[in-house]
Write a structure and sequence with these properties.
719 residues; alpha+beta; Immunoglobulin-like; 8-stranded parallel β-barrel; 25% strand
Length: 719
C-alpha cells in the first residue's frame, strides 16, 4: 500500500494531502530544536563538533498507522553538512553534493510506532557539524522493493509530497558566541582634513594609528572599493553629494585611491621591509620586493604607472591595518556590496545582461519608496549564475589578500537565500573563522531566515524615542521568540544611515529643561566637576543617554535565544554630533573627546571595553525582566531593570529612562539558584562623570531597595 500511495497514485507535487502527507521537518542540535527555516550552531577549538538529529512525520490515510513496522517504508536524510562546496573544472564554485544517512521509524520497545497524532515519526542517526558554513538537509521516502543502495530505487522528496522547504543550518565560529563588540568606521572620515578649502580624505594609515583607541573587538569598514562618479552613457556626473557614495563601486578589485597614502608620502621601502608587499603584488612588474625596496620614486612610478603603484601601496597599508588589529586582539571586516555598482563601472558594457535595464537597454534608475538612487546601477542578481560567480570572488579575494576577517553584507534581506548560503560557504572556505554579518534593516518577518552568522537588531528608534521600559521589553521578547535559537543580533543606537543620537538627545533634553521646572532644577543644582557650565547640561544628559544605550545593548540579550553584540559608530564614544555623511566633505570632531565632559565618556567606553570580558553572564546568561507592573517596581514604568544570570552568578542592570526624576524600586531575587546577600557595583554611569547622588542599595526585609538618578545606569553583581 505504501508503494501505491507514494509511487503510483500521484505525480510529484500533486499529492492529495488529505490522503498522503509529510512534514513537520525539524532538527535537534546539541539539545536545541529548530524548524527548517533556520537552525544555528557554533564550532571551534573548544567545541569541535555540534551533534544533530533530524525528525520528520509521514501520514498515509489508506494505512492503519499503528500496524506499520520498521522497514515497511524506507526513509533517508540528505544533507550537505560539512560540505561547503568546491571549484569545478570551469573554476566555478559549486555546492557540495551531500550524502545520505538512514532514518528509522520511531517505535516503542515492542516495535509499535510512536505516533504524533496519526502520523508516523522518523528520526535520523546522529551526525555532526564540524566546519563553519551554511548547510541544508531534507528527507526522501521510498516503498519499492529495491535495496536502499540501488541506483534504480525510486525516491520521493519531502517537497514533492507537500509544501515543505529544505532545512537550513548556519554553523558559526565559536568566538562569536561570546558576543564581541563592533564599531562601524568610514575610513574616508578618519584623519580627514581641509586644506585650502579642499577636503583631504582619511586613509587606512590614519585608522591603523588609532586602532588601540577604539574600545571594541571588531572594526567594520564601510566600502573601500574604488568609487565611480559618472554615467557611462550620458557622461554626466551623477555622484551623490560632493564626494560621491562609497556604495557606488567602480571596481570591486581596486581600492579607493583616496584611502591610500600617495606615493610621494609613502615609505615604500618600509612597507617592503615589514613584509607588507607580496611577490603576487608584483606580478607583471618584472621585479622582486627587495629590488622594489631599493628603487627611487621616479623609477617605481616608471615601472607600471602611478595608479598601479597606488594600488600596491593600498594593499600593503590594508595589510598593515589588519596585522596591527590582530596584534591588539581585534578583527576587521568590510562592507560587501552585492546589489549595485556605480553607473560608470566597466561591467555595464562588458556584461549588460547583469543589470536591470530600462527600455533603452541602459541601467535603470533604482527607486525605493521616495528614495532615488541615481548614482548606481542595480544588478539583476536573482538566478543570474555568471554574475553570482563573479560576486562570490570579491570577499575571498580581500580576505586572502589582506587578512580581513569577514564581511557585512549590504541589504542582505533582499538577497536570495541560496546565494547567501553560497557566499557564507565561499567565505568560510577562504577563512573558516570569518564573520558574515547580514544587514536586516527591515521588518522582523523578512529577517528570520537570513543565513548569516549575525544580523542587525532594530534598536535605533527605541533608544532615541523610548522613555518607558515595557515597549522595549516587548520588542526584545518578540525578537527572542521569533528568531532561531542562538541568533546573534547587532544592537546599536546610531550608524551611517541615521542622525547622530547624541545631537538628537541634546536637542530633546534642552526642550525638556525649558518645559519641565523640576527637571531644570535637578540638573541646575547637580554638581558636576567635569562640566561647570550650567547652560551645557543638555549635553551632559545626552552623553549619559549615549552610555546608557550601549549598556542596554550589551546586556539585554538572552543566551540560547537572541543574544546581542553591541555596536558603535566611529564618534559614538566621544558623543559626536556631526553625522558621518560620507557623501560630503564634512569633518568629524575627534578632538572633542579630549574635552570635558566628552573626555569622561571616552574613558567610560574604555573601561566598559576592559571590563566587558569579565562579565560572563552578559554573553552566557538567561535574562529575567523585573517588570514595573509587579510589586516593588516603578509605577510610571520608567525603570528598565533585569538580571542576566547563570547557575553560578548574576548581574543586575538598572536604567532610569526618565531624564527628570530620581526613582526608587525594590526587588527580590527568589528566582536565582542562590541567596543574594549583597550587591557589588561594577559600573555606574554617574560615577563615570563624577556625579554625586549615587545612593548605595539598602537590604530590607522585603528585598533590596535601589535609588536611581535621572538617566543613570547601574551594573551590579548579586552575591
Amino acid at each position: 500500500m505504501f508503494f501505491e500511495q507514494l509511487h503510483r497514485t500521484y505525480a510529484p507535487h500533486h499529492f492529495d494531502n488529505w490522503m498522503v502527507w509529510a512534514g513537520e521537518l525539524c532538527i535537534q542540535i546539541d539539545g536545541a530544536h529548530f524548524p527548517p527555516s533556520l537552525a544555528r550552531a557554533f564550532v571551534g577549538t573548544s567545541y569541535p563538533q555540534a551533534r544533530a538529529k533530524v525528525r520528520v512525520e509521514l501520514f498515509v490515510a489508506a494505512l492503519p498507522s499503528a500496524q506499520v513496522r520498521q522497514g515497511d517504508v524506507d526513509v533517508r536524510l540528505w544533507t550537505d553538512a560539512d560540505q561547503r562546496g568546491a571549484f569545478d573544472q570551469e573554476s566555478k564554485f559549486q555546492p557540495g553534493l551531500g550524502r545520505h544517512l538512514p532514518m528509522r521509524l520511531v517505535c516503542d520497545p515492542q516495535g509499535a510506532p510512536l505516533l504524533s497524532g496519526q502520523n508516523l515519526v522518523f528520526a535520523s542517526v546522529e551526525f555532526a557539524f564540524s566546519t563553519t558554513g551554511a548547510f541544508n538537509y531534507t528527507v526522501q521516502f521510498s516503498a519499492d522493493e529495491r535495496e536502499i543502495g540501488d541506483s534504480q530505487k525510486e525516491w520521493v522528496g519531502l517537497s514533492q509530497l507537500a509544501r515543505n522547504q529544505d532545512g537550513v543550518v548556519v554553523v558559526s565560529p565559536q568566538w562569536l558566541s561570546h558576543c564581541p563588540s563592533l564599531m562601524e568606521v568610514c575610513v574616508r572620515k578618519v584623519g580627514a582634513r581641509l586644506e585650502e578649502g579642499r577636503f583631504r580624505s582619511g586613509r587606512f594609515a590614519h585608522l591603523t594609528a588609532q586602532l588601540d583607541e577604539l574600545p571594541v573587538e571588531i572594526i567594520y569598514l564601510l566600502p573601500f572599493f574604488k568609487p565611480g562618479f559618472s554615467d557611462l552613457y550620458t557622461g554626466t556626473d551623477v555622484r551623490k553629494g560632493i564626494l560621491g557614495s562609497p556604495y557606488a563601486v567602480a571596481d570591486f578589485f581596486q581600492l579607493d585611491p583616496d584611502l591610500v597614502t600617495p606615493p610621494e608620502e609613502a615609505d615604500l621601502g618600509a612597507l617592503v621591509r615589514e613584509g607588507l608587499v607580496r611577490e603576487s603584488d608584483l606580478e607583471g612588474w618584472e621585479i622582486s620586493p627587495p629590488e622594489l625596496e631599493r628603487l627611487k620614486l621616479p623609477q617605481a612610478l616608471a615601472l607600471r604607472g602611478r595608479e598601479a603603484l597606488v594600488q600596491l601601496i593600498g594593499k600593503a597599508e590594508l595589510r598593515q591595518l589588519t596585522r596591527r588589529a590582530h596584534r591588539l586582539g581585534k578583527r576587521v571586516i568590510f562592507d560587501l556590496v552585492l546589489m549595485q555598482t556605480s553607473r560608470d563601472n566597466p561591467l555595464i558594457h562588458q556584461h549588460p545582461e547583469w543589470y536591470v535595464c530600462d527600455e533603452q537597454g541602459r541601467p535603470a534608475i533604482h527607486h525605493i519608496a521616495w528614495l532615488v538612487y541615481s548614482d548606481v546601477a542595480l544588478f539583476d542578481l536573482v538566478f543570474n549564475q555568471d554574475l553570482q560567480e563573479y560576486l562570490l570572488e570579491v570577499a575571498p579575494y580581500w580576505i586572502e589578500q589582506c587578512g580581513l576577517d569577514g564581511v557585512r553584507i549590504d541589504a542582505s534581506q533582499t538577497v536570495d537565500r541560496p546565494f547567501l548560503k553560497k557566499i557564507k560557504n565561499r567565505i568560510a572556505t577562504a577563512q573558516p573563522e570569518a564573520l558574515v554579518l547580514g544587514e536586516t534593516l527591515c521588518a522582523l518577518d523578512q529577517a528570520l531566515d537570513v543565513p548569516t552568522d549575525a544580523i542587525y537588531a532594530l534598536l535605533v528608534d527605541f533608544h532615541r524615542d523610548v522613555e518607558h521600559a515595557l515597549p522595549l521589553i516587548r520588542f526584545l521578547e518578540e525578537m527572542y521568540a521569533r528568531f532561531a535559537a542562538r541568533t546573534l543580533a547587532l544592537a546599536y543606537f546610531e550608524n551611517h544611515d541615521s542622525p547622530r543620537a547624541t545631537q538628537v538627545w541634546r536637542e530633546k533634553f534642552a526642550r525638556r529643561l525649558q518645559e519641565d521646572p523640576q527637571a531644570a532644577r535637578y540638573w541646575r543644582e547637580l554638581p558636576c566637576p567635569v562640566q561647570p557650565e550650567i547652560g551645557q547640561r543638555p549635553l551632559l544628559m545626552a552623553l549619559l543617554k549615549n552610555l546608557q544605550a550601549s549598556l542596554i545593548n550589551l546586556s539585554t540579550g538572552l543566551a540560547g535565544r537572541s543574544n546581542l553584540l553591541y555596536g558603535l559608530e566611529w564618534g559614538s564614544p566621544w558623543g559626536e554630533e556631526m553625522r558621518t555623511d560620507f557623501e560630503n566633505p564634512t569633518l568629524l570632531q575627534p578632538h572633542l573627546g579630549q574635552q570635558q565632559p566628552r573626555a569622561s565618556l571616552v574613558r567610560a567606553y574604555q573601561l566598559l571595553h576592559q571590563h566587558r570580558s569579565a562579565w560572563e553572564e552578559f554573553s552566557t546568561g538567561l535574562v529575567y525582566y523585573l517588570r514595573n507592573e509587579f510589586a516593588g517596581g516603578d509605577p510610571e514604568d520608567r525603570i528598565l531593570a533585569y538580571t542576566r544570570y547563570t547557575d553560578q552568578g548574576a548581574l543586575l542592570a538598572l536604567h532610569n529612562l526618565d531624564c527628570s526624576r530620581p526613582r526608587t524600586v525594590t526587588y527580590t531575587f527568589e528566582y536565582l539558584l542562590f541567596a543574594v546577600e549583597k550587591t557589588i557595583a561594577l559600573f555606574d554611569t554617574y560615577a563615570a562623570f563624577q556625579l554625586p547622588h549615587t545612593v548605595p542599595p539598602v537590604r530590607e526585609p522585603q528585598g533590596f531597595t535601589f535609588h536611581i538618578q535621572p538617566l543613570q545606569s547601574l551594573i551590579l553583581r548579586l552575591n
